[in-house]
Specification:
With 404 residues, the chain is mainly alpha-helical. It contains 15 helices and two strands. The chain has a two-stranded antiparallel ribbon. Helix 6 packs antiparallel against helix 7, helix 13 crosses helix 14 and helix 13 crosses helix 15. The longest helix has 33 residues. It is globular.
Length: 404
């Protein structure tokens, strides 16, 4: 369907007789803001037809981030970022405010599900080769978003100011002291002195609700812009890559493609998928179904399991054994396995730093035109080994901490 008939149909729906009293107001605003054009551009765009259910992971990530923002705003109505009142405010929610307890549970389980979904989204992107030209910046911004979500997870874990939160704060801020040259200064800035105390919690709260979201939100906007500019790559099953296809046939196929294809600059064989579908209603419907299921899971876990709150923070405790969040279990296990002298510099800085750098450099390490996983063993084999290694370390950590 051409652009004008679809835009006209959209305008006709928005000015239906039922809404006629508001039609003149809408037209006045639309003439000045171009709402119809914006809605059209947002909804009516081509996407690859095959593998559409796997593309929902990106939309689910966005929905859960929005859910985290909303539930976080509700928690701000009750939470007090004070070492004397933080635990009391959350304990009050747990025992005297059922709605607040569910909201806190959704915020916690939303963070867990978000990390899982964004991880699966990165795996899907990696396996399908969607980081290749011209989508290198999509991948880089996605990796940075993943690291920011991890930072949000660890700073959020510090805020309840129970035993788990206090000792997480002690360990996390202590690690900073090993940063070359600036380590002790960074530790003192975050802690507000030599020891963890009231200023530490206030600054952690500011980092969690202001600094990290201020970096996250514009980066999400850039990530979505790049996606809309180059189009969803999908996977190799969406592309013909036929060596017998003539230049004229390829040119005709590119000419018939709808925006945002062809993805320029790109390998001509992967510039336009073979089979396209409309983002609305087909892909939007799939996104809505998977997002609903994800939010439902978060809600059920919040109601059934809830969010734990341990005893109030006690710096003098000699028996409490800190347990890291599940997403840091592999790193925690590595710290145990390294010799004491190497533990922090190697386990905390060199390995995570090297892993983060390699993730960001993936599009530049793999310059081959191949998209199929089995044609990229030089990248897929090390990635599979790394994933299995992380799972193995996490299982060792669970066994060590919980004596399973």
């Amino acid at each position: 369907m051409s652009v004008e008939p679809r835009r006209s149909k959209l305008v006709a729906r928005l000015t239906h007789p039922v809404a006629r009293p508001l039609a003149s107001v809408y037209r006045w605003v639309d003439e000045r803001m171009g709402i119809s054009d914006l809605v059209y551009k947002a909804l009516y765009e081509a996407v690859p037809r095959r593998g559409a259910w796997t593309y929902t992971l990106g939309s689910v990530t966005l929905i859960i981030i929005a859910l985290q923002i909303v539930t976080g705003m509700f928690l701000l109505w009750s939470y007090v970022p004070s070492t004397t009142e933080a635990w009391l405010s959350l304990n009050y929610l747990a025992h005297h405010n059922e709605f607040g307890a569910i909201v806190r549970g959704m915020h916690l389980w939303g963070a867990y599900v978000l990390l899982l979904v964004i991880g699966l989204h990165m795996v899907r992107t990696f396996v399908s080769g969607s980081y290749k030209k011209p989508r290198e910046l999509n991948w880089i911004t996605g990796v940075i978003l993943f690291l920011l979500v991890l930072a949000l997870g660890i700073t959020g874990a510090m805020l309840p100011w129970d035993q788990a939160a206090f000792w997480t704060t002690v360990v996390t801020t202590h690690v900073l002291s090993y940063v070359p040259l600036l380590g002790h200064w960074l530790q003192e800035v975050w802690r507000g002195g030599n020891q963890v105390g009231p200023v530490t919690l206030t600054r952690t709260f500011a980092i969690h609700i202001w600094l990290l979201p201020a970096l996250l939100v514009p980066l999400i906007g850039l990530h979505i812009y790049l996606l809309r500019r180059h189009g969803e790559h999908g996977s190799w099953v969406n592309y013909r890559n036929d060596p017998e296809e003539s230049e004229r046939e390829r040119a005709d196929r590119v000419l018939r493609a709808e925006p945002p294809y062809p993805a320029v600059p790109s390998d001509p064989a992967y510039s336009v998928p073979d089979d396209l579908d409309e983002f609305f209603p087909s892909q939007v419907g799939k996104d809505a179904i998977v997002s609903f299921v994800a939010v439902l899971i978060i809600f059920v876990m919040a109601v059934v399991v809830g969010s734990p709150l341990e005893a109030p923070a006690n710096a003098a405790s000699l028996t409490y054994v800190p347990t890291p969040e599940w997403f840091f279990l592999p790193l925690d296990q590595l710290l145990v396995q390294f010799p004491q002298a190497w533990m922090i510099p190697v386990g905390v800085f060199i390995i995570p730093g090297l892993a983060s750098t390699l993730l960001i450099m993936v599009p530049f390490l793999d310059r081959s035109p191949d998209r199929e996983p089995w044609k990229r063993p030089q990248l897929m084999v090390p990635a599979l080994f790394t994933l299995l290694f992380l799972i193995f370390e996490a299982l060792l950590g669970v066994n060590r901490l919980f004596n399973l």
